[in-house]
Amino acid sequence: MTIISQTMPRPTAVGAVAAADENAPVAAGYGDDRTGVLTAVGSTPLVRLTRLLPGARFRIWAKLESSNPGGSIKDRSAYVMLSHAIATGAVVPGSGTVVESSSGNLGIGMAQACRALGLRFVCVVDPRTNPQNIAIMRALGAAVHLVTARDSATGEYQPVRIARVRELVASLPGAYWPNQYANPRNGWAHRVTMREIEDELGRAPDHLLCTISSSGTLRGCADWIRERGHATRVVTVDAEGSAIFGPPTGRRLLPGHGAAVRPPLFRSGLADEVMHVSDLDSVVGCRRLALSEGLLLGGSSGALATALDRMSDRVPDGSDCVLVMPDRGERYLDTIYDDAWVKAQFGEVTHLWKDEMAGAGRC
């Protein structure tokens, strides 16, 4: 694997930029107002993958967001949303409480940022949230509220989580809800992500693949690309069990990509192409990434790997394809990377990645 990494300069405090309008100019990084763990957010490596698709006549690059200190791309959104909230007086360090709904990664990013910024944090989760993610949030001082009832209209947990957030914000003094699903700062954070990709690659990529949940990554990257007139083809990957682009066509066991309702941050026309993948597709992609490239990544990254495989015959020779890989895989050891769990959910499916297993030379 080839790794391109660089330390981005941080000439402008993100709070000062974020206090302006949504389309404010993007500094090279997130700002020099950061201290402690927050200085490690962003500037993640861009890694060339050479074994994922043998014989591919185009270059595959992975933007490894697992390198953020909290382990996921959501560290970016958490820091930018909270920095903006502090800069505008929406929440006050030392006395304020942040309340947010999360399936895991944003909760960890928020818990981490709140520790660094002097804020209390309450996260509302549901049974789909990985127990390890809950444990990490609690270790970082967060209070975790678990909702177990499903929404009567959709059968999903997300509307119930949001309703609980509203109740908590109304009852807690000095409470603030960042609302990742509607907050423009969530999208703004990923203008920087896209800027980093361009700087690391030396040009805009020919194809950009990213998964979708709150729409933050897609919104920020696509807006950056379109505003600069780049010819990059943007492909977003959603779960079959998601309702963002229409009625769900399958179940959704894995947290990360997909959503029960279309988020307000979503805007039509952001992506040139939408691809839907199943939970099994995500599992297979993850296992192939681990065995071919030595990358232990989360379910959304597996979804991207599978999507790229499916569209590979349509990618022109010599193209640069960048996959924005959202998180690390250690938090999925009891699910995606557990053979017994996989068999219980999908049956005997190891043949779907056994070629890589044979090439890896098992002990």
From TrEMBL:
Q: Where is the Tryptophan synthase beta chain-like PALP domain?
A: 38-327
The EC number(s) this enzyme carries: 2.5.1.140
Q: Which Gene3D superfamilies match?
A: 3.40.50.1100
Judged by the first EC level, this protein's enzyme class is transferase
Cofactor(s) listed? pyridoxal 5'-phosphate
The keyword rRNA processing is annotated on this UniProt entry: no
Enumerate the UniProt keywords alphabetically. Answer: Pyridoxal phosphate, Transferase
Please give the pathway this protein is involved in.
Answer: Siderophore biosynthesis
**Reported function:** Catalyzes the synthesis of N-((2S)-2-amino-2-carboxyethyl)-L-glutamate (ACEGA) from O-phospho-L-serine and L-glutamate.
Q: Which PANTHER family match?
A: CYSTATHIONINE BETA-SYNTHASE
Give the protein family: Belongs to the cysteine synthase/cystathionine beta-synthase family. SbnA subfamily.
Subunit structure, as described in the record: Homodimer.
What protein name does the entry list?
A: N-(2-amino-2-carboxyethyl)-L-glutamate synthase
Supply the source organism for this entry: Streptomyces spiramenti
Gene encoding the protein: sbnA
